Structures are given as C-alpha cells and as structure tokens.
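In response to a reviewer's request, we include the raw inputs and outputs for one of the modeled complexes. The four entities were modeled together in a single run.
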Amino acid sequence: MILSAARDMIDEVGLDGVTMGALAKRAGLAKGTLYLYVRSKEELYLLLFIEAMDAVVTQFKHRARPGDSAAQLAHLMTLNAQTTPLFLPLYARLIAVIEANVADEPLFAAKRRLIALGHEWGAHLAVVTGVGPDQAEPLARTITMTMLGAAQFDISAQRDPQGLPDDMREAFASHAFAPSFEPSARLILEAVMSPRRQG
Amino acid sequence: MILSAARDMIDEVGLDGVTMGALAKRAGLAKGTLYLYVRSKEELYLLLFIEAMDAVVTQFKHRARPGDSAAQLAHLMTLNAQTTPLFLPLYARLIAVIEANVADEPLFAAKRRLIALGHEWGAHLAVVTGVGPDQAEPLARTITMTMLGAAQFDISAQRDPQGLPDDMREAFASHAFAPSFEPSARLILEAVMSPRRQG
DNA sequence: TTCAGGTACTGACCGCCGGTCACTTGGCGA
DNA sequence: TCGCCAAGTGACCGGCGGTCAGTACCTGAA
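The model returned the following structure tokens for the whole complex.
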C-alpha cells in the first residue's frame, strides 16, 4: 500500500525528506506506477491529512463530554492532536504547501470532506461546551486557527536541540505544540464557557 | 536594490512565482551576483519579513492606546496586518517554508530580531489592554497564534474565484484574513479585558 | 605607462526532483 | 495458441536553486 509506505518513509526521513523516486522504490513500484495512483506528491499528503483529521474528529467526539471543564477540554484537544500521527506536521503545511500544488478536482473533493469534518467537530464542541448557537461558530473558528498557528510553531520545535545556542534552544522548545496550544485553548474556552457554566 | 526588485516581482507573480534567475535579471544582475548578497531565496524572504514585522509592530505601538476597547484593538490589529505589504503571505510561510531552508547563522540572527520585536509588541499590548503581568504573555501568544492561523487561511482566500463552484467560492472567501481574525481577536481580547475594564 | 592585486560581477554548468510517456509484461478469455 | 488490455516500467524531460572558474575593471605602486 502506497499510503503505508509513505507513512513509514515520513517517519524515517521527515515530511520534507520524502522524494517520489525514493517513495516508489520503497513501495516496490516504479515512479511511473506511483503516478497512476496519485497525481502529485501533495495530493498524497492531502490523503494522509484527511485520514489524520478524521481520526482526530472521531476521537474528539468519543472523548469530549458535556460537563468537561475548559481545562479538561483544552488538554484533551492537545493530546488528541499531538498523538494522532502526522496530524500536526501535515496541518502546518496544509495550505501554504499542500493545497498550493494540488489540481482543482481533487482539491475540491478534499476540501469538502475537510469542511464536513470540521463541522462535525464544531458541532460536538458546541454541545460539550454548551455555548449558544451564535457563539458556536466563532468559537470553533478561533480554536481552529489557534491550533493551526500552534502546529506551525511546532515545526520549529521539532528541530534537534543538539548544538543550538542556549537562547535558541529555549526559543525553539517554547514553541512546542502543547505549551503553545493548551493554555490558549483553555483561555478561549473559558471565555465562552464561563458566563454559562464552568467545570 | 535587490529587496525592492523582489517586492516588485512578488507583486506581479506572487511569492511562489519568484525564481532566482528571473529576480536576478529583473534586478539587473547575474544569478551569481544575487547570491553574493543573499545566501538563499528563503533568506531573502526572511529579510523581507523582518521589515514587514517591524512595520507592523511600529504601527501598533503608534496607534493602539490604553482605553481602546477590545473591538477597537481587534480592528486595528486586523488593518495593521492586512495593509502592511507582504506581511501576511510571508508570515503564513515563515516556519514551514522559509525557516526550513535558511542556514543556521542567519536564521538565529533573524529569530533573535523577531523575538525582540514580538516582545515589544506584546509589552505594548499588555499596556493598552491593562492585563496583569501573569496574563500578558499567554494573551500575546494566543493572539500571535491566531494571527498565524488566519494568515494561513488567507492564502487560500487569495485565489481567483473565477470559475470556482459556488460552495468552494464561499469556502475560500470565508477564509479571508479579516473575517477570520478580527472576531477571534476580539473574543480573546474581551476575555482578558472584561474582568478589569472594557472600552 | 605598466602591471599586480583585489573586488564586483558573470553565466554556463551541476545535481536534484517532480512529473511524463512510449514501451514491456503478464494474465485471461476466445 | 494467440490477441488484447490493464498494469507496470524507468529513461527521460524541464525547470529550479545554487556553484564556481573565469572576466572586467579599478587603483595604487613602481
């Protein structure tokens, strides 16, 4: 399976280290064969991201419950994003790198699926936070954007701290996903939850 | 001047349409000469981004005043980011694209400068919002990440809506920077400002 | 006036990579 | 046995970022 070979390869050499030639060889195919199944490298990444996003949404619907506190929800979202393989690095590159190089037709199909997943997630978020219908959408958008920003930051935090000057090591480390995202998510969730109920 | 030629060229062909060969020709230089002044394409972008970030911070320090409401501040930040040339597209690509391909030494120098600018901005934000010292840093980080996410979204919103299916046109348009960022920024600012004062 | 040295500049060239396509292979039904 | 077609192949292409041996020119000393 191509997707599985891609996952393995990304594990080993990182997202930016994947080349289609090497991936084909690894999957036991010729380069041309690979392109029978996937129209471009970015389309492949898009497929992988949809899988990851699906997993994140499914897990969130499973785990988040009405009555959870803002802190609990923020923590759950953080773990969720962080433990789903490939979710963060692909999310960080989704728009600037991946969408920029996918043909229209598969792009639209992917976007529709992602938007649908986003709505599922947002709807569940509205339920568990108990926010009113007018606040549900801005809340979901705000959390989404914050997560997208935190995913960016996380890229630089992945860098090997070996040999970095002290101030840089600290700067990189402080941009890791969890310490960036979780407090912000909590702040946002508390803002919309506190008028109604808390905890 | 190389930076100026780069700005012009980005205006015309977009960030992803710039090639070093064409840029050199446009600046009246040979490719090799260009590389005497800039070690890589991404280093050039990093220089441009530092300029843009500097402008944004300077403007924010000039325009934001204690007593401004959350809505006013959110609006000001939005305009600020949007009207500073190249700020948003470069910000969106800063980590995943630009930082990923710059040599250590210039990267560290740039990061130090950007971190210093970020602190200036955050300090002024703390003053105008009047938040306590314990809340200042998470507030600045949250707004920063949200802006980073919104800058991402804005990339896809830049796409020419000609010939897009209706649902996609709507989806792309709704991701533009202002409608994404401003309500979220307002939500976040209100959350930290309301306990103390408002307006 | 000549020449050595150094600096700014040049552009042909390289390696790499994503993507293509004319061709081969192999299995299956007639 | 043979023809056909789907699946697969890998040499090849174009374009790009980046390099480097060489050139042009100026200056100041002899």
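As requested, we also summarize the result in words. Chain A touches chain B at residues 16, 92-97, 99-100, 108, 111-112, 115, 138-139, 141-142, 144-150, 152-153, 155-156, 165, 167-168, 171, 180-181, 183-184, 187-188, 190-192 (CB under 8 Å). Chain A has a mean pLDDT of 95.
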